[in-house]
Amino acid sequence: MNHERSRDLYDRALSVLPGGVNSSVRATQPYPPFVARGDGAHVVDADGNRYLDYVMGYGPLLYGHDAPEPVQSAVQKFASEGPMYGMPTEVEVEHAEFVARHVPSVEMIRFVNSGTEATVSAVRLARGYTGRDKIVVMQGGYHGAQESTLVAGGPENPRPSTPGIPPEFAKHTLPIPFNDPAAAEAVFEEHGDDIAAVLVEPILANKGIVMPVDGYHQRLRELCDDHGSLLVFDEVITGFRVGGLGCAQSTFGVTPDVTTFGKIIGGGFPVGAIGGKAEIIERFTPAGDVFQSGTFSGHPVTMAAGHEYLKFAAENDVYEHVNRLGRRLREGVEDLLEDRAPEYTVVGTDSMFKTVFTRDAPGSFEDHCEGGCRQRDSCPRFDACPKTGADVAAAETGRWERIFWQEMKAQGVLLTANQFESQFVSYAHTDEDIEETLEAYKTAL
Ligand SMILES: *Cc1c(COP(=O)(O)O)cnc(C)c1O
């Protein structure tokens, strides 16, 4: 493969864009493939190389790079007729009605422009609604680039995880390990009356994909109920990906008070949203007193794309297709690992997948959770399957990034470049693509 044009473009980019990119994860080594165009499940780079793509925009592209026809025509119509007004439109009402009809926790919704903006607004809303300051987050959880959640350490010593955030801000955030009910109980015991919300991804999806252990979310629900705190599910990545149109909350049977959305809900355009019980969401201005506003919020092109995206999924075999291929891929990788690297762990659910390069696990796959770790406690591999963000971080991250990812790319398969980010199967992927991908895994593992 020739990469001259990507290299030259990166050279230029480094002079005018910090790190040569507009979002940190994109700066892959030695230089990222600059994309010229997408084509179904593939992307073509500036040098004409064609890759099977599992990055899928880091989550939004449920259909791959060719949106269904109704999405494309809606986008064109709304882009050419507007593209935006700063006044309400019918399409945002339709999109809100659709989401409220399908997602258990949502009666009302406010649309914004990114997942980050959604979590920022959700935290402000929870604080305004409860009159309390503290929020509980999961270590290794990700809620976008925002002040209240870029916090490391534990409940006793929270500290900003990046320069630029005053330590005083971090004091109001209490990070605990995911999947550890005792740690959640302890933090409520100590701070219960001051906790506005628990903010949790139903599945840790930005740290290797970690499924919840049995009963974990139910316990968080009880603790929030007992202490008058809000349970906020960050479904920016799992929303309309895991659990189909009901989202991950329908899979786990736990209804949060507030849900944040992003990615798929905008049909490939910039989006975020905060949904939940009307009584809570109506605290946003102008219905209530918690300030929230945005020039581009409810952008007609985004609303039209998102609405047609979800409608198409409701009327076609979309989730059946992507979930079947996701499972086939995860099972296929497990078969390869059994011979080649039984210490590694396949994680993921529905159309999400990743292989975590864990350092030890039983040599056998007998009686294991097939098609990705389910945290079934009778599984012989249960103890080795990552439970927390720290477990994923302890894996062979360097090997993934420096060797494995590069080899997959050389074979024409684009995965996410670090050990932490999930990968996605789209509606454009085929059984043949999965076969080809497994062949590449066979060579690279
Ligand atoms: C992607 C993501 C975000 C941030 O969304 P942006 O649109 O990138 O700001 C927040 N939370 C979760 C769970 C995400 O996956």
UniProtKB/TrEMBL annotation:
Broad class of the protein's primary localization: cytoplasm
GO biological process, one term: protoporphyrinogen IX biosynthetic process
Keywords: Cytoplasm, Isomerase, Porphyrin biosynthesis, Pyridoxal phosphate
N6-(pyridoxal phosphate)lysine carried by residues: 263
Record's catalysed reaction(s): (S)-4-amino-5-oxopentanoate = 5-aminolevulinate
UniProt record similarity statement: Belongs to the class-III pyridoxal-phosphate-dependent aminotransferase family. HemL subfamily.
PANTHER family assigned to the protein according to its UniProt record, in alphabetical order: GLUTAMATE-1-SEMIALDEHYDE 2,1-AMINOMUTASE, GLUTAMATE-1-SEMIALDEHYDE 2,1-AMINOMUTASE 1, CHLOROPLASTIC-RELATED
Name listed for the protein in its UniProt record: Glutamate-1-semialdehyde 2,1-aminomutase
Organism in which the protein naturally occurs: Halobium salinum
